[in-house]
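pinging the channel bc i need a second pair of eyes. not urgent but kinda urgent?? the chain im working w is below, pasted from the shared doc
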Amino acid sequence: MKWKNYLIMFIMLFVIWLLLNNSLKIEIMLLGLGISLILPLLLCGKCEVFSNLSLSPKAILYSFMFLFTFLWELIKANFDVARRVLSPSLPINPGIVEVKTKLKSKIGRVILANSITLTPGTFTLELEDDSLFIHWIDVQSDDVEESTRLIVEKFEKYLEVMYG
């Protein structure tokens, strides 16, 4: 399914080109179109990054839902960490917990790990098979299932539809 990798890379590059140039002039769009057509051919010969990505309407809807969920969790975590910084009397309980993922695709697991890392208060230390080891600013449970529910499930349900 190389065509899917080329198509997704083309669309991403062309959209980024348009956003960076902030112009819909025909010459800028044609140049961006040409560059966006050539780069995937040069760079994605053996590229399989998007091979597991589903392009179904449900997956596209879930990608937007994932984005909103991620942004909401990002905002909540920022306020939580800021509150802890501004109120040093608030207890913290840092530690490393293991969580499990049901995701099968490598790219889905990497996106999950990065989403956790980008959320303040958590940091993915290692991704090994179906286990992620997370440094958590306030460990609420050292039980694998409970930690998985608290950290992973909010992202995983969307990524599972998008990537499998």
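so Residues 57-163 form one domain. and The beta strands are 95-100, 122-128, 131-136. — does that match what u expected or am i reading it wrong
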